[in-house]
Structure formats: structure tokens, C-alpha cells
Amino acid sequence: MKMNDAFLASMREAMELLRTAGPLEATEAIQRALRTSSPWGSKEGSPAPAQVVEALLPADGSLFRNDVPLAKTPFASSLPGQARKAPSPSDVEARGHFSLKTFANHAGQRAYKLYVPSSYRNEPVPLIVMLHGCTQDADDFAAGTRMNALAELHGFLVLYPIQPTEANPSRCWNWFRPGDQQSGRGEPSLIAGITREVMASHNVDADRVYIAGLSAGGAMAAVMIHRYPALYAAAGIHSGLPQGCAHDLPSALAAMKGGKLKGASRVDAPASMAQPKRPVIVFHGDTDHTVHPSNGSRMIAPFEVGEALKRTERSSDGGGHAYTRQFVTAANGVDAEYWLIHGAPHAWAGGSSRGSFTDAKGPDASAEMVRFFLAHPQHR
């Protein structure tokens, strides 16, 4: 007996949710599909929900088990870099010092790793906060982005907050939950707290603190630059989503699919078109099938309101991928760059194959983010 098309479409959506929101949200999507439609197209003779789930998931239950490597799950082949072994810390330490620490506040506890370049002599230096994507950790993200190597070249610190499986079974930052979208609460308070702890323990130039992320990490970076403009001077968002685009699972899935937004988050309804507060550089592949490319243009839209200055350049020499690069200066003088990378998937552009979710073809997103960041200190 053949499953109907609508139900199969719901299952495909659930699988993609697993990548950016985690297995609990994917399971909820499956349960919702079971409640609203018959998988086999008719009520008569339809199997029980348990039989439907059994037909869709592997017999060993590996899809939602945390101890099974993602490369062994049914959809691993569609995830760039996931079949590779996660790097060891020694792979990414370079000549500097890469240490593991823990921070705690009223919202909970998070581990983080801090890279201090070999040139650091307690002089004021920039700090870049890097938020990993789902299924990643600090070592994986550092290896894939090669941000520590750039820290050696330019002399800045790199901070990697780590999302534990206790907070999200797939280690996704919970960017779509109202409790994790506000300053002083939830995950934003933890990320900001870790940032301030590093600023207190090292000689960080407070005018040159930046934040960046990939996918779910990019979506959380968008939250952070909106909620903490006094802390972060600029943000880099790769394959992410705009602040305030979702407030629960259905709205998150709609935003990921590129559907028309009916409004921003209930927490911050006008956020999506508010006057920009800080510079942003955005990267998105136009063949990203996990987070729709329209999310990249939506992040730049607030900069284009009113008498904005705009310039566009196109290049076929991106180290492999052609790209369209848009420069925008908002009416209030805040800059943005948007790199639409042609033929690129849901992966960090110009990244190393030693990390997951990377695309070795350029442009080099890490180098371009660093260039953009260092050109945009905060002016107090």
C-alpha cells in the first residue's frame, strides 16, 4: 500500500527539521502529520501510528539516538561533510592555546572553548564569538571554518560556546523559542555571559567584539546582534535566518522553507523590519535545500528601507563558485553585505574538509567575515 504525497511531504519536512531544530521538533512534526492525515490515503485499513513510524524510521531507532553518528543515519549523504570523522582538538590548535572552560548563570550552564593566538601579549585585541550549527561542537566548527588560523594571522581571540545535548539533542541553538530570543533570558543570556567572562579574563577591545554563526548558530547570531547591540559591534550570518522570524515549530519550518512570513516573533513583532543597529555580513548558497536562500535577503531587507545606498557586483571567480555580492548602507549609516553564492549548498563557504557542513569552494566566508568585522569597530 502506497503512502500519499502529502504525508510523504510532511515526513521530508520532519527530516529537514532534524538538521536545524533537533529530533524533538522533528518527532512533533511526525506526530502532527499522523493526526492530520492518513499516510495511506484512506481511513479504511490504515495502520496504527506506531506502524507508520516504524515504516519510516530505521529498525534500530538510530534516527533519534544521540549515540549514533549522524553519518550512519538514513539522510547523512545529503549533509555536506557529515561522513567525515570529527577532528581532534590537536587538529585545530595551531600555535596558540585552545582551552575548555565552563560558564553558569541563572539560565543554566554552558561549556565553551577559547582560542588565544600565540602572538597575544595582554594587549587589547578583538574577540570573535562563533556559534556552531546542529550536530557540531567547538572543535568541529573551528576546524571547518579555520577561524583559529585567521586568529593567528590577525591576532584576535576566538570564542566557541557549546550547545549540549541536554539543551537540544542535536546540539542546535534554540533560535525559534521565545524564551531563547530575549536579552537576559535563556540561551542569549548564556552566550552574552560567556562573552563578558572572556572580556573580563583577557584584554579584549570592547569596541571590537563580534559574533557569527552557521545555520541554527547563524539564526542565534541574528538574535544576539539584535538583543545585545551594545556588546557586539557586528555579526556574520552564514546560511541562517533573521531575528524574529519564528516563535514555535510550525513558524520555524515555514521560515526554513522560505514561506511568506505572516509576522515576526510574538516576542518582538516588528523586529524583522526594525532600523538596523549594527553592521551585518550574510552568506547564503542559492542551492541551500535546508534553509531557503530567501532568508539571506530577508536579513538585509531592513538595511534597504528608505534612502539606502546600494551597490551590486557579480563575480565568476569565487574560488570555485560564482557569487553576487550586494553592498548596502542603511539610511542611518549602518553597513551590510550580502553574498549570494551560486550553486552552493547548506555549508560554510571556503571551509576545510576537516570539519562538517563545509564547502571547499569559495568564496572564503571566514576571511571575508574577518575583513568585514575589523573594518567595523563599534563607535561609542
From TrEMBL:
EC number(s) on file: 3.1.1.-
The organism of origin for this protein: Cupriavidus taiwanensis
GO cellular component: extracellular region
Top enzyme class: hydrolase
Record protein name field: Poly(3-hydroxyalkanoate) depolymerase PhaZ
Matches recorded under NCBIfam families: esterase_phb (TIGR01840)
Keywords: Hydrolase, Plasmid, Signal
Domain of life from the UniProt record: Bacteria
Pfam families the record matches: Esterase_PHB
MF GO annotations: hydrolase activity
